């Protein structure tokens, strides 16, 4: 059983529990992005098992009529085995999503996998336009060039600041500089796209900037936040008519996920402690 401190961030261990979370979020006007916990598999059988789980989850979402989609991690569906296996599984999942009128996001992991991930996204989006979306990270120095490359790809783009600890040679490590890059990248998206923009941030300043840019440009966008983080703000934004999506992981590998969330940023540790104390 998931303890209370972790259950605030994880939508249960099973598909029925995850769908119950989606149902409750939908009642608040919030859509949900479901992610089956698991990553860095070096056994092809593990990657195949999670690929099959996503195929089943997409069917369950379609049958339920709930407002939800899925998000996969490259290393979960084969990247650590081979880039070919990753793209094969990624394509299979998106093909099923296209078939049942669903949607697939692909998370971005460490910088060593960026090229292979973007290559697969471009190829798959060309065959299944607007059935797939890709995460990009503003802390990477390369991201402005990546956005230029991806701007006309027929899929959604989720912009996040980035949580991986990358060397300064390839990434901005100062918070203020990352914020600056995020603002620049967000502006680029709104200047050059009128749809398919996902603002992956809990930062009120960035969300306000996105709203201003969207109004100026007449563009459609969505805000994405993690389960357990600023959920009051998620509901408030949804009530104001903003398209809000909550990223909600589920599954029995919750301990490693929770540990990583806390380890990534010191403020997550404070947040978790407050959750335990009910503050």
UniProtKB/TrEMBL annotation:
| Biological-process GO terms, alphabetical | L-proline catabolic process to L-glutamate
Which InterPro entries does this UniProt record tie to the protein? FAD-linked_oxidoreductase-like, PRODH_bac_arc, Proline_DH_dom, Proline_oxidase
Provide the GO MF annotations for this entry: nucleotide binding; proline dehydrogenase activity
Cofactor(s), by name: FAD
Task: Please state every residue range assigned to the domain named Proline dehydrogenase.
Answer: 19-273
* Catalysed reactions listed for this entry: L-proline + a quinone = (S)-1-pyrroline-5-carboxylate + a quinol + H(+)
Q: Top EC class per UniProt?
A: oxidoreductase
- The EC code for this enzyme is 1.5.5.2
Pathway terms, separated by semicolons: Amino-acid degradation; L-proline degradation into L-glutamate; L-glutamate from L-proline: step 1/2
Looking up Gene3D superfamilies in the UniProt record yields: 3.20.20.220
Name the source's superkingdom: Archaea
Q: Keywords for this entry?
A: FAD, Flavoprotein, Nucleotide-binding, Oxidoreductase, Proline metabolism
Q: Name one Pfam family in it.
A: Pro_dh
Annotated PANTHER family: PROLINE DEHYDROGENASE 1, MITOCHONDRIAL, PROLINE OXIDASE
> This chain belongs to which protein, by name?
proline dehydrogenase
Q: Name its species.
A: Halorubrum ezzemoulense DSM 17463
